[in-house]
Fold each of these.
Amino acid sequence: MTAAPTIIQLSNGDRVNRFTVFKKLGEGTFGAVYAVRDDAGAEHALKAELATEKIPLLKLELYVMQKLSMKGPKHMATLIDKGRHENFNYIVMKFLGKSLQDAKKTGPDGHLTLGSAIGASIQCLEALEELHWCGFLHRDVKPGNFCLGRAELGELRKIFVLDFGLCRKFVDDRNVMLQPRRKAPYRGTPRYAPIASHNRAEHGRKDDVESWFYMLVDFTNAALPWKVVNEIPQVGEMKKNSRFDPLVTQLLAGCPVDEYRLIMNHIDGLSFFMEPNYGLIYSTLKRLMQTRNIQEFPYDWEAEYAVK
């Protein structure tokens, strides 16, 4: 077993070069995130990691962000600064708002209305497409890894992708796809992980999109059949069986069944090397909104998260 990373603990008022900590935003398996102010008073988010960490996830995250930045992405938090301070490395990025893990509960019955569910999901898929275009897989697609912009900046309708610490490059320097490993470690969060994770198979682009599809369904009905199951093997079996009745009916309860099944069938029909047809998915969802006269805006969370 790999030892858990040492979490860098900072206190309010601590200085990290030109940044001053004023709040701890969160702490996960891979480190802590702090809200900081620069000397001009602008607010940002700072991620820190021990410089001697054997598996430096922050270094990977920085590498991915730098590559993405070169493409002018719509859905990545701007990289402000990077450096080393005392015994840790850090990156500073745009300070974002609530995660979709929180925002997805702001609609009626603990899930989003259809317009908000589809609108948010389209933005999340755009974010993944940007990442794939740069040659990276995310491998931990879940609502907690997407954030809204901040109300103070008028960005409550904009969604950003976060946490590139589990990313993996799927192409070489000549942009040729790498061969999959025969066996790969489990990656992802059980509720949203693709079937490939349960099979200990290598992730491809299709697997990020499969995880995205589970988010789309979750945003729509908050009733993924395996959400009540704790054992990972059982979760995997339920996902495999959710392609057929009776479980597929339970999976898509309260969803636009024809459109969601079309998207699921497209994803399931992809092989490891095939590129998902993002355009097909966008057009299917946008056409659904047009034919049903579904309004995307305002998003369900806007009233609750507006500047008071």
Amino acid sequence: MSNVFTQRPGGRMPSGFPNFLSVPLVILIVIAVAIFLLWPFRTIDQGDVGVKLRWGQAVDVLYPGINIVIPGMERVVLLPTRSQKFSPPSLNSYSKDTQVADVKVSVNYAVDPKKAIEVYSRYGATFVDTIINPNVSKRFKEVFGRYDSREIVNKRKELGEEVETAIRQSIPSSIIIETVQIENIDFSDTYEAAIEGAAQAEAAVRKAKQELEQKKVDAERVVVQATADATARITAAKADADAIRLKGEAEASAIQAKAGALRDNPGYVALTAAEKWDGKLPTTFVPGSSVPFVTVPRGSAP
């Protein structure tokens, strides 16, 4: 059998390449393949850690950067240390008053880098399916069943906090549960219509109470105004009465003072009359009467 590398006339190989390049080229290709298959370096991206397995046994944690892995003997399993979101299918759950609802829940989680070997050794690379998913479903339904449907609607924040606490406590500390969100609660159409009707009825009751309270306030305002008006009128009447009384007392005091003056000064009347006389004598006299305003002292000369 002829050798495929037998040189032909002209110094060229059957492939068309010069003979002196044939062997080195093959060697280079073999070396390149060997390096590719036996490359001992492994790059870990930021946000992941690698669990190094040697003959299938977890022996070390590889952090972001270039790491050495012995080909054929060792391999690397990546676990996420950056926040990951897990959203299971809608959870069909029953409330305390046996109302069914489809609830959409999501969980943000990450692996503790220092406990990556523990996570892989106990739960494997599919730890989401083996530990997170069943615990989320179980704990959520337990907490959801403690609330009746009305509380679920009115206390959604408290429900979410209790669900998050229950899930976090049921997951090993090697898996960090960052947040739990209740994204949607979907009751049956019939029940949602009933809830809406009840809410409208409660709103009507609250409105009626507010209107009643407003009427009470208005009535009290009227009473207060009427009382103020009556008080004002009584005060004014008392002021008028006091004014009349004071005026009467003043007039009585004046009369009493005048009477005392007349009593003590008999000539005061004649003086007053003389001051007011216009100098004309009356044209008629009553028989036996004296001439007005003229007083003749007794024993005086004519």
Amino acid sequence: MFGKLGGLAIRQQSVRQYATLKEVEMRLKSIKNIEKITKTMKIVASTRLSKAEKAKNTAKVFDSADGQFYKNAETKASEQGEKELVIAITSDKGLCGSIHSQLAKAVRRHLENAPDADVVAIGDKIKTQLLRTHASNVKMAVSGIGKEAPTFLESAAIAEQLLGLGAGSYPKISIFYNDPVSSISFEPRVKPVYSAETIVESPGYSKFEIDADAKVPIDLFEYTLANKILTAMAEGYAAEISARRNAMDNASKNAGDMINRYSILYNRTRQAVITNELVDIITGASSLD
């Protein structure tokens, strides 16, 4: 009895080993549709890249002017083991390779040395990845990022939310973002934001004639926070658009290779079907004779 069941199971497993002509045709059609989508997304990313580069260059102008002040004042970030605020900036969109996961890895490596640091995730992608491993560190998340090129109004609104969270009380603030090294590569980087106390304690702060009652260090800290967020968002946006264009280009090439392979398989399967039909016709005709 069991021998018969075993033989039946073997026969059922070897009933079909080849795809039918209809299945190959449907598979080929779906791959062609995917290729059309990836090519379209590559074209869209290419058109947005020039706008992203313009936004990045504009933000760098303000960032360089801001950095010149801290260079003359000889301001340095605090290296002591104090409470730190980590701001991780990506976007809400995917289909751009490993750009989000690479930044998440950089933030996780940093949190290994600063396990008590508070994290603000700007962008749904970085928020989702950090919540998997460091949910207790994430204190706030901002979504709706990366749909268009960032503006100062957008970064100022985020900075206002951070100030409401108490960003001014942190002695050390670090911003993690993706830097577009070239058109085909990017690298996670970190830039500091100096607190008002750090600005006042700068060795070269006395070079400037600043009214002590005007709360200039606080205003300068708030402006720098918004300006650094804008620069990080602009550079991250440019890196993301470039990565998406490269990812869609690779996807289009892979789809083209699959189309070639499935076209050959389709033609061979079609020829086999025609041959089998001819054999059936000839066999039927010969049996009548």
